[in-house]
Amino acid sequence: MAGASLIALIDDIASVLDDVALLTKLATKKTAGVLGDDLALNAQQVTGVRADRELPVVWAVAKGSLWNKAILVPLALAISAFAPWLVTPLLMVGGAFLCYEGFEKLAHRLLHSRAEDDAAKAELSQALADPAVDPVAFEKAKIKGAIRTDFVLSAEIIAITLGTVAQAPFGTRVAVLVGIALLMTLGVYGIVAGIVKLDDAGLHLSRSAGAHAWAGFKRALGGGILRAAPWLMKALSVAGTAAMFLVGGGILTHGVPWLHHGIEALTQSAGALPALGGVLAALTPSLANAGVGVVAGALVLLAVTAVSKLRGGT
């Protein structure tokens, strides 16, 4: 009898762990847009910090991120327990904010020339070279700014995760939210630490001494890393922006029944076309979600701009 009870208990634990793993995987997929943006933003936040201080700054921001999530996870659990009706509105707000951030980035790229961006970077470099600038104060300001940015992105991650596990038992919600919080923090800042030290690694390899083939390979690899590092940052930024529209638009379409049903009908129609039906049916939901995301982002940006102008004029 005791053996049967133990087997039943183990089976229940395995079932719960399966649910946690499945929901964590689903939540990770849905938060991919925020993750890409989080990587790009946090890597950019370290710009201007001395090379020997980059990793301490990343570590300081990572600790701040953990504190952010230590506030947000209990708050999310309290909402799911005592005001579950708030989950969907919060999820919609998070989706709209993702679309807004994505469109703001897109608008910046379209409205600002490369020369303007280069001039801003040159101005920052000149300011940092000024002996009157306190490097300690600059570093602290960078850390505070990065932690503030992380709070917004962490809130989006937790809101999306909460929407994924809203119908799960309370224990599963706790496990998934805590798991996602830790996974995202360790994953993001571990990768950020690697990204910000890429140029140092490339420089070290490019200076390898010796005439033998292995030294030549290391020098070539180092040069390749140095050339690829800026492109990696650009690729992360582009991928993060695209994922924002896909994820944010997907959240909004699932929250608006007529939009969701309309995309389903469009997908079925695309699938019925000869030859390319299968490919179009696979692409249509993502393209439709991205389209909704772009439109929603534009509308939110217009509203925010209008409100800002009205407040500035009063």
A few lines on this structure:
The protein has helices at 2-30, 32-45, 54-82, 87-111, 114-129, 135-165, 170-196, 198-206, 213-255, 257-271, 277-313.
Describe this structure in words.
- The chain is mainly α and 314 residues long.
- It has one domain (2-313).
- It is built from 11 helices and no strands.
- It starts with a helix and ends with a helix.
- The relative contact order is 0.15.
List the helices and strands and how they pair.
Blueprint: H1 2-30, H2 32-45, H3 54-82, H4 87-111, H5 114-129, H6 135-165, H7 170-196, H8 198-206, H9 213-255, H10 257-271, H11 277-313
Spatial shape: globular
Main beta-sheet annotation: none
The total tally of domains equals: 1
DSSP helix count? 11
Q: How many strands appear in the DSSP assignment?
A: 0
Give the amount of beta strand, in percent. under 5%
Q: What is the helix fraction of residues, given as a range? A: over 70%
Poorly predicted parts = 1-17
Radius of gyration from the CA trace? Answer: 23 Å
Termini gap: 77 Å
Q: Helix/strand-derived class?
A: mainly alpha
